[in-house]
Amino acid sequence: MRAVVQRVAHARATPGGEIGPGLCVLLGVAADDDEAVADRLAGKVARLRIFEGDDGRFDRSLLDTGSAALVVSNFTLIADTRRGNRPDFSKAARPELAGPLYERFCAALRELGVAVETGVFGARMQVELANDGPVTIVVETGGSDKPNG
């Protein structure tokens, strides 16, 4: 699984939900991912310290700030671009696997206490956001807890 996590002042997916300050999470699911990977990545995203504390350092997480997450499915994050100019999506999970794992990731965030809004899985969406910082982090985990790719 791969997530592009952006700290935002606000974000909206159309169709889908909208948040104020928090994180916009673009989530890609790989063919070899499972529920344990989704749970592990959700925990990492929820605890990722990319919000500034009183001293200006990145010391606070979604859990610390009580901020929300907008989670948008994005299979193109699993693209392999090492060869040629056309991305290879063969390592991305098929929708029948990716959909439930996307939902599991969102549920795991909610179980940790994060308010979650979502896009619409499999839909063509417009995603609007105001990146705060900008702060953008790529977070990866796989079945062996090593980066995919």
Strand and helix map with partners:
Blueprint: E1 2-14, E2 18-19, E3 22-28, H1 35-47, E4 51-52, E5 58-60, H2 62-65, E6 68-73, H3 95-111, E7 115-118, E8 126-140
Parallel strand pairs: 3-6, 6-7
Antiparallel strand pairs: 1-2, 1-3, 1-8, 4-5
Helix pairs in contact: 1-3
| Succession of helices and strands | EEEHEEHEHEE
So how many helices?
Answer: 3
Rg from alpha-carbon coordinates = 15 Å
**Strand portion, in percent?**
25-35%
* SS elements, strand count: 8
The helical percent reads: 10-25%
Shape: globular
Class based on secondary structure composition and strand pairing: alpha/beta
Would you mind describing this structure in some detail?
This protein is 23% helix and 35% strand. With 149 residues, the chain is of the alpha/beta class. Strands 1, 2, 3, 6, 7 and 8 form a 6-stranded mixed β-sheet that branches. A two-stranded antiparallel ribbon has the order 4-5. Helix 1 packs across helix 3 (95-111). The protein is globular. Residues 144-149 have low confidence and may be disordered.
